[in-house]
Write a structure and sequence with these properties.
CATH class of the largest domain: Alpha Beta
Number of strands: 11
Helix content: 40-55%
Mean pLDDT: 88
CATH superfamily of the largest domain: Bordetella uptake gene, domain 1
CATH architecture of the largest domain: 3-Layer(aba) Sandwich
């Protein structure tokens, strides 16, 4: 029979083993963050996405007590930025800001397998857009614009962020939803800022854009908002109807954005970045910035949730590419 002293020694040993077992996971999860983190944006500076990501970088820097910079790499349907991040060191120091338009562009070109070459960190936001025309335009409502397009096929033109971009697909969905379809000429730009300047000059007829990028022009009377693309009206534009309210049945389009890292990035680094992202999204500065831009904060509950969303959207994109006959520019 064991003596009390032996039982006491055994209990001490068992307690020590348990303590070590509990401690090791904590030690294993300790992650060293790079001194500088870079978020690569596949769009030029000045647009709504760029404004939002720069504020996100600023807040994440405070949360991580580190330097976070934004690197704009526009062009080639996002391929320049995508390849730059995919080939970066997988240490959690370089992130790609992926939005749904770039995901579609990659589907069209077939140059990159997003889920093979990257690990999703988390979705950040979604962004209903607004359909705008020049203030001197004769079109006062969505119905006016649709009637004009159908009366003169291919005569009217509209600005987009490129073939297969979210703003291009917004028109394609409009074409799909309107009985009889719509034929207008797509004028692609490198970024929304360039398209807005062109619209203000009266050189294109209409475009879809983030409300924050044109709100001042709408208030000053330089541009006219006809409708928004979301399911419900925007708090920022309460008097502007949705396209569905304007007669386009079941219309809804809300592009999203999120962060990814190179595929070989350790899961612990991904978890660290997601934690920082989650905390940053709750910051009042981020809340105010996205509100001004007309977007909505929608941070993924987990990185795995964002992976599922990307996988599902890739499947839908492939069907759209075939249906619309989209090809790389």
């Amino acid at each position: 029979m064991n003596s009390p002293s032996r039982r006491f020694v055994f209990c001490l040993m068992a307690s020590a083993v348990t303590t070590l077992a509990l401690a090791f996971p904590v030690i294993a999860q300790t992650v060293t963050a790079p001194s500088v983190t870079k978020i690569v944006v596949p769009l030029p500076a000045g647009g709504g996405v760029d404004v939002f990501v720069r504020k996100l970088a600023e807040v994440m820097a405070k949360k991580m007590n580190a330097t976070v910079i934004v690197d704009n790499k526009p062009g080639a349907s996002g391929q320049i930025a995508v390849q730059a991040v995919a080939s970066s060191p997988a240490d959690g120091g370089t992130l790609l800001y992926l939005h749904s338009g770039i995901l579609m562009a990659q589907t069209i070109t077939g140059r990159t397998d997003i889920l093979r070459d990257f690990k999703p960190v988390g979705k950040v936001s979604s962004s209903p857009h607004v359909l705008v025309v020049h203030a001197s335009s004769p079109y006062k409502t969505t119905a006016d614009l649709i009637k004009a397009i159908q009366a003169s096929p291919d005569k009217l033109n509209f600005g987009t962020g490129g073939n297969g971009s979210p703003t291009h697909l917004m028109f394609e969905q409009l074409d799909d939803k309107v009985p009889g379809g719509l034929k207008a000429t797509n004028i692609p730009f490198k970024g929304v800022a360039e398209g807005i300047v062109t619209l203000l000059a009266g050189n294109i007829d209409f475009l879809f854009t983030l409300p924050g990028t044109v709100s001042e022009h709408i208030k000053s009377g330089k541009l006219r908002a006809l409708a928004t693309t979301g399911k419900v009206r925007m708090p920022q534009l309460p008097d502007i109807p949705t396209l569905a309210e304007g007669g386009v049945t079941d219309y809804q389009d809300e592009p999203w954005g999120g962060l990814l890292v190179p595929a070989a990035t350790p899961d612990a680094q991904v978890a660290r970045l997601w934690t920082s992202l989650k905390a940053s999204a709750a910051d009042p500065e981020i809340v105010e910035t996205i509100k001004k831009l007309g977007g909505k904060l929608e941070v993924s509950a987990a990185s795995s949730e964002f992976s599922v969303q990307i996988r599902d959207e890739l499947a839908r994109n492939k069907l759209l590419v075939v249906k619309l006959g989209l090809k790389a520019e």
